[in-house]
Write a structure and sequence with these properties.
- A six-stranded antiparallel barrel has the order 3-4-5-6-7-8.
- 10% of the residues lie in helices and 43% in strands.
- The radius of gyration is 16 Å and the shape is globular.
- By secondary structure, the protein is mainly beta.
Length: 114
């Protein structure tokens, strides 16, 4: 099956399809979806990504690297001892980002730094 990007679906497990669905309805392979997301970051001021398992990178759902984490400081917050990670990162173009995450393997809400 050839996708809208011209490639076959990415290698995947029985629990996924090896494809990503874009807002315009096109279906592309994971590598092309990662490239599209990295290209969009140039003009975006907000980013929702995943903090990888060792806390050193922001990545897409499929594992594509979006930015390298330059600082990851965890603090206890709230009455129940939850942890919040305060992050700074730099993407491949040199753009700096800052934001928070509940921890490794979880989402990270980032904003472009001024």
């Amino acid at each position: 099956m050839t996708l809208a990007c011209g490639h076959d679906p990415s290698p995947h497990s029985e629990y996924s399809t090896g494809t990503a669905h874009l807002p315009d309805g096109r279906e592309v392979c994971w590598e092309c979806a990662d490239t599209i997301q990295r290209d969009a970051m140039v003009s975006e001021t907000k980013l929702l990504a995943y903090l990888n398992s060792d806390g050193t990178a922001l990545q897409t759902w499929s594992g594509g690297i979006l930015a390298r984490v330059t600082s990851n400081v965890a603090h206890k917050v709230g009455f129940h001892g939850s942890t919040r990670h305060y992050l700074t990162a730099i993407d491949p173009t040199g753009k700096k980002w800052h934001g928070t995450s509940p921890g490794t393997g979880m989402y990270a809400k980032m904003r472009a730094s001024k």
